[in-house]
Design a protein that fits this description.
The protein is an alpha+beta fold and 235 residues long. Helices cover 22% and strands 33% of the residues. The chain is built from five helices and eleven strands. The strands form two sheets. Strands 4-11-5-10-9-8-7-6 form an eight-stranded mixed beta sheet. The chain has a three-stranded antiparallel beta sheet with strand order 1-2-3. Strand 8 and strand 9 form a beta hairpin. The longest helix has 15 residues, at 172-186.
Length: 235
């Protein structure tokens, strides 16, 4: 079953989150306002052709186990390793004395602004529909957030973990992730996540929370040649 994590976007798009996507039996994309992530069943010329027909003017993000060669019909904006980690321990203890808030559609402008400031990865107008998103406020300011992104049978991805630069060092990320992990575990599912291999600080935190390295995937950010001017997503 863990092999589903070798191609997590595709397996989310064709199962638990199919209702948020469009495509065919070779390639699928999330609705553009939900996410820039796209999946292919396998990295083949036929699959890339199908994906090109779905891409429009979007910049698309894809990650799976195999490192690709040429990607017909696209420019490769980013091609880099991506570390996948899976939760292997018990759910961490809930935070003590930190108020955790459930984010709603009304919070999306602030969430998008925090993502733009801290760059944890792509976040679109309807990304919040992908799962539970939690936040911590300091006064009126959104100080930190984290949420659920990809859902596939038995697994839920933790994503968008970010803290405002003026609020770091207070344990907010660990607190948010602890609540998310406990919630995912309570449903009988396993949390997983993706992180850049050079982000040593984040990897150390994830290890403390019970995540273990599973394998390296390969991140692609793709753009149709005629498109330009869009910011590149990251994991």
């Amino acid at each position: 079953m863990a092999q589903a994590l070798d191609n997590p976007i595709w397996n989310a798009l064709t199962t638990e989150q199919a209702h948020l996507s469009v495509g065919d039996e070779r390639a699928r994309v999330f609705h553009s306002e939900v996410s820039v992530l796209a999946g292919v069943r396998e990295r083949s010329a036929e699959a890339w052709h199908s994906l090109a027909g779905l891409a429009g003017k979007q910049t698309l993000g894809n990650f799976m186990a195999a490192e690709p060669g040429e990607v017909p019909g696209f420019e490769q904006v980013v091609s880099a390793p991506l570390l996948q980690m899976v939760h292997a321990g018990e759910a961490p203890a809930p935070p003590d004395g930190i108020k955790i808030l459930v984010m709603s559609a009304a919070d999306v402008p602030e969430m998008a602004a925090l993502v733009e400031l801290t760059k944890p990865g792509p976040f679109s107008a309807r990304t919040i529909e992908m799962g539970t998103y939690l936040g911590i406020r300091e006064g009126e300011r959104l100080a930190a957030m984290a949420g659920e992104r990809l859902h596939l049978p038995g697994y839920v991805e933790v994503s968008a973990v970010c803290t405002h630069p003026e609020s770091t060092g207070k344990g907010y990320a660990a607190s948010l992730m602890s609540v998310l992990i406990a919630g995912i575990r309570s449903r009988g599912e396993t949390p997983f996540l993706h992180v850049r291999p050079d982000n040593a600080r984040a990897i150390a935190l994830y290890r403390r929370l019970g995540f273990a390295e599973r394998k390296f995937l390969h991140l692609l950010v793709l753009r149709r040649p005629e498109t330009s001017g869009r910011a590149s997503p990251s994991a």
